[in-house]
Design a protein that fits this description.
Layout: H1 3-9, E1 15-16, E2 22-23, H2 59-62, E3 72-76, E4 82-87, H3 99-107, E5 110-116, E6 126-132, E7 136-145, E8 150-159, E9 162-171, E10 176-183, E11 190-199, E12 204-211, E13 216-225, E14 231-240, E15 245-254, E16 260-269, E17 275-284, E18 292-301, E19 307-316, E20 323-331, H4 335-342, H5 348-364, H6 370-393
Length: 400
């Protein structure tokens, strides 16, 4: 019995997302994947995987043609790290799951590879900078942490163009990798990305997605396990302002025994048309006995006119697991927290900033790179100041 058949047997039926747009029930694992662009029709927004996304703004990245620029990509790291340019197909962790990923795979002829040697324990992070220069372009990155290595890799995305990217992540047996992907493009930039990770036996992946800039950002993160004992922690922070669309989609595919996954994404929204989307899919296959998984998404709506969509999904094909659960919450400020702070003489605006900063701290604090943490706190503080002005003025502002 397929995952879809299992769900239907449990009472789930086909459903619709609006008049004339019936969407048949389809398990996450059964959606098509391909390296061939032609296998993915141009989205119209009625498809299940595109129904939340402003597809009209993404036409350039749907086109089956070469880019009009080559984004600037550079990297540096501690001694021993190998940074080199290789063929785009040198490492294949995952297959493109939508049209933009297939287009990016087709037209990014080369990839920048960051290789962490076996047994290496890096005391300083590897930094990868990706700058989109103002037009349409594609990038391909490979991060390969060999067995029993320990490393942190920070990928910074900046610029004003339209970027589609693929990131291949390999965590070797017994290795520990922290990968931080920061999306902080200019307020008119567009960034679509697919991250595919393969976690080895007794390995640990800590993946952190931070989205603060960009007009439209959509990041899909997919995790598989190469052997038992793998552990994946997927964390995310996003703050959407007026005119910004921040979308994160995750798929954790448990097919090996005794593996763990923990997903925690937090977002804030302020301003008219501020929009966030979070889709969390976890599949526990029949062979994945001993799985322990949980996913949580929390959203804090700071002003009227903002909207957060949150959809956690869990497919379980075996009852022999340690635990599985998911939760989602969207709301406004906790009045009790504000009252507590104001009762101690803290002005309302400052109290609100403290509440939001605390909301994000448990994730940002896990990044482990002080200069990055400091920079992110500064950007969030700037966004909070604009949100306070927005609340006071009662009108929308365009922020970054």
């Amino acid at each position: 019995m397929t995952a879809t058949e299992t769900l239907v047997a449990a009472g789930n039926q086909a459903h619709s997302h609006g008049p004339g747009s019936p969407v048949p029930l389809q398990a996450r694992s059964e959606r098509p994947t391909s390296y061939d662009v032609a296998d993915f029709p141009v989205p119209n927004g009625r498809e299940e995987e595109w129904r939340f996304t402003p597809v009209k703004t993404l036409k350039a990245l749907f086109a089956d043609e070469a880019g009009t620029e080559t984004p600037k990509v550079d990297a540096h790291g501690p001694d021993g790290v190998v940074i080199e340019t290789v063929a785009a197909d040198a490492v294949k962790v995952g297959t493109p799951q939508d049209r933009p990923a297939a287009v990016a795979w087709t037209y990014a002829a080369e990839a920048l590879a960051v290789r962490i040697p076996a047994e290496a324990e890096l005391t300083e992070p590897v930094h990868v900078n990706v700058a989109s220069l103002g037009a349409r372009g594609f990038t391909h990155l490979i991060v390969d942490a060999a067995r029993h290595s320990r490393a942190t890799v920070v990928i910074d995305h900046t610029g004003a163009g339209e970027l589609s990217s693929n990131v291949e992540i390999v965590v070797g047996d017994g290795a520990e990798l922290r990968l931080v992907s920061i999306q902080q493009g200019d307020h008119e930039s567009i960034h679509l990305a697919q991250h595919d990770a393969l976690v080895g036996r007794d390995a640990k992946l800590n993946h952190v997605a931070v989205t603060l800039g960009g007009k439209v950002v959509r990041v899909g993160t997919n995790v598989r396990y190469a052997g038992p004992g793998g552990d994946a922690e997927l964390l995310g922070v996003y703050f959407a302002e007026s005119g910004q669309h921040h979308e994160h989609r995750l798929f954790v595919d448990h097919e090996a025994t005794h593996c763990k996954s923990n997903v925690l994404y937090k977002g804030a929204l302020a301003g008219d048309d501020a929009r966030s989307v979070w889709i969390g899919d976890v599949l526990i296959r029949a062979a994945a006995e001993g799985t322990d998984t949980f996913e949580l998404n929390r959203n804090l709506v700071l002003t009227d006119g903002a909207r957060a969509d949150s959809v956690p999904n869990l497919e379980i094909e075996t009852g022999e697991i340690e635990g599985a659960g998911h939760a989602s919450a969207t709301g406004r400020f906790d009045d009790e927290q504000l009252f507590y702070l104001q009762a101690r003489g803290i002005p309302e605006d400052e109290a609100r900033r403290l509440v939001v900063s605390g909301f994000f701290n448990d994730i940002i604090g896990r990044i482990g790179v002080p200069e990055v943490v400091e920079r992110l706190h500064e950007v969030i503080e700037q966004k909070l100041a604009r949100a306070a002005e927005l609340s006071a003025a009662g009108k929308a502002v365009v922020g970054r």
